Structures are given as C-alpha cells and as structure tokens.
Amino acid sequence: MSDKRPASPSPESIARANRQRLAQEEGVRAMADLERRSVEIRKNMQRLRALREAKEADEKRAPTVIPQPVKKKRKTRTVR
Q: How far is Cα of residue 1 from the mean position of the Cα atoms in its chain?
C-alpha cells in the first residue's frame, strides 16, 4: 500500500492552511459585525417609527386651527 501523502506537510500547504484559517476567522468576524449593525439599524427604525406615530397621533388630537389673515394697514402719505 502506497500512501501519496508525505510524512510532513510542505511549507506551501502550511501557508495555504494558514490563509484559509485566517479567511474563515475574518469571515466569522464580518458576519458578526453585519448582524450587530443590522440589529442597530432595526432598533433605530423602531425608535423613529415610534416618534413618527406619536407625532401623527398628536396631530390628529390637536384641533385644526386656521389662522385668520391679518389685514395690512395702509401707509399714509405725509405732506411736507
């Protein structure tokens, strides 16, 4: 029986394994960061929605007051 693997890994295979390990760790960190940011965005959207709904409710409860137009006074000419 012939085993095609050498007894010790080559430097190239060690370097490749390290690159793959680092890429996997970076991917895990990136996914965790993405999830954390999406949670923050959802919280902010919920806060803004609550503020908007409170404002709309206040606007509905407040009586609609139409301001009366202010009559402008005419300027009088002074005679010199």
A: 60
The string of pLDDT tens digits covering residues 17-32 is 999 999 999 999 999 9
| Enclosing H/E stretch for 64 | none
Cα separation, 6 vs 69, whole angstroms: 95
Q: How many residues does the chain have?
A: 80
The model carries a pTM of 0.54
d(CA 21, CA 27): 10
Confidence of residue 2 (pLDDT cuts 50, 70, 90): low
Tokens of 2: 């012939």
Residue matched to tokens 């139409």: 66
- Stretch (H or E) spanning 7: none
- Distance, CA of 33 to CA of 40 (rounded, Å): 11
